[in-house]
Amino acid sequence: MDSSRIRSILGTELPIIQAPLAGVQGSTLAIAVSNAGGLGSLPCAMLSPDAMRAELAAITSGTSQPYNVNFFCHAPPEPNPEREAAWRTRLRPYYEELGIDIGSEPSGPARAPFSHDAADVLDEFKPRVVSFHFGLPSTALLQRVRDV
To answer: What gap in Å lies between CA 43 and CA 19, rounded to an integer?
Structure first.
């Protein structure tokens, strides 16, 4: 696909898509990239619906250019206390050597998969581009995104 086709699909001046950086980036970078002619991206895997709404409100007030909203589509792992205890036991000597409290580690990732609540927020803002990591959402959720 040539760059003019990409620019046409994205609605951007430049064929550049900013990588969404979950956990280290918010609306400010997405606004700057969109205003510079690329497609700014907002990572949403670690945002609650209210936080996503606030970030999208900032983007829409900071730029009139297209932007991307990115989500994870994964099956969250099932808690497994036995497996967790096994790795903690195996790694305990390293934690002790480094003076780190082994109980201070979080119990799991704070990244949530795309949901109906997230789709509700997208309905409010209607971003030009919605992208996914680690697969696609269910057919019902994907249809909701297509309708945005």
So the answer is: 9
* 20 token code pair: 């969404």
Fill in the DSSP letter of residue 67: E
User: At 1, is the secondary structure helix, strand, or coil?
Assistant: coil
Which whole number is the average pLDDT over 64-88? Answer: 90
**Residue 110 backbone dihedrals phi, psi, to 5 degrees:** -100, 25
The closest of 19, 54, 137, 101 to 145, measured between CA atoms, is 137
Pairing relation of β-strands 129-133 and 67-72? parallel
Position 78 confidence tier, pLDDT thresholds 50, 70, 90: confident
**The token pair that represents 129 in the structure block:** 């581009």
- Look up residue 14 and give its two tokens: 């430049």
- CB of 68 closer than 8 Å to CB of 39: yes
Residue 109 confidence class, pLDDT cut points 50, 70, 90: low
pLDDT tens digits along 110-145:
788 899 999 999 999 999 999 999 999 988 888 888
Helix, strand, coil % over all residues of the chain, rounded to 5: 50, 10, 40
Phi and psi at residue 70, to the nearest 5°:
-115, 140
Query: What mean pLDDT value characterizes the chain?
Result: 90
